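R.M. (postdoc): so does anyone remember the format we settled on? I'll just put the structure tokens first.
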């Protein structure tokens, strides 16, 4: 994970996974056609998409599974100036999903990867406690519609500690509750401390799940729960044997 300061001694930006964070480059705009933008790059050299905007609608595959993108934008649905995104953002499709304490969470369609890139969903949060007295932003993403429906649009990072961390996940429409069950095990791959079993059931807000668990990303324990998705009537939609 890479960390770079935005304001000396007070703020930072932390990439938590996926395609990583990229700095803004407003002088370059990907091609307007979302279908063209989603084609894989086939040349020998990789020129990574590093910012700008896409003046087009996201692909139907994303819009059809993420209701938050289909609602009209509000004044709160804007990434703060200077915040790095996970690629070139689709103009007009940034959505603030929730506010937890002083932290605001956003998701947005992006074109990322090697140019012309592929379409996926980026996620960012601001005013997050990064530890050691540092507040800043976290983000990453780039998951495709298929990866979202397969439960693979997951990031881990702060806020947390040596034995805790926060999971963020993009959740498709129809999933009303998510249950994570951790068996007893090491809280961190770098600590002999054994944590008891832990189960939590929570709800996504605006197609995004944000939950802090008593496991650390260090060494991998945070990736080892079982996960169940349920509909609003309690029906099991999908089960996963790990994140």
């Amino acid at each position: 994970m890479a960390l770079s300061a935005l304001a000396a001694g007070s703020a930072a930006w932390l990439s938590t996974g996926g395609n990583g964070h990229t700095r803004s480059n407003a002088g370059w705009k990907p091609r307007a056609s979302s279908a063209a933008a989603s084609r894989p790059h086939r040349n020998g050299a990789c020129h990574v998409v590093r910012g700008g905007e896409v003046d087009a609608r996201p692909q139907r595959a994303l819009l059809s599974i993420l209701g938050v993108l289909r609602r009209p934008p509000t004044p709160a649905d804007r990434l703060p100036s200077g915040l790095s995104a996970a690629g070139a953002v689709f103009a007009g499709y940034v959505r603030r999903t929730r506010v937890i304490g002083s932290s605001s969470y956003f998701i947005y369609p992006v074109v990322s990867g090697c140019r012309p890139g592929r379409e996926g969903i980026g996620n960012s949060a601001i005013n997050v406690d990064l530890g050691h007295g540092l507040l800043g932003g976290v983000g990453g993403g780039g998951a495709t519609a298929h990866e979202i429906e397969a439960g693979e649009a997951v990031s881990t990072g702060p806020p947390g500690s040596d034995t805790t961390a926060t999971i963020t996940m993009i959740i498709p429409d129809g999933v009303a509750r998510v249950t994570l069950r951790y068996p007893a095990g090491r809280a961190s791959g770098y600590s002999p401390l054994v944590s008891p079993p832990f189960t939590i059931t929570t709800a996504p807000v605006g197609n995004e799940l944000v939950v802090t668990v008593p496991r650390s990303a260090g060494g991998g324990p945070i990736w080892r729960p079982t996960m169940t998705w349920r509909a609003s009537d309690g029906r099991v939609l999908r089960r996963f044997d790990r994140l």
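R.M.: ...and that's the designed sequence above, right after the tokens. Also worth knowing: Helices lie at 34-37, 60-63, 67-70, 145-149. The chain has a mean pLDDT of 81.
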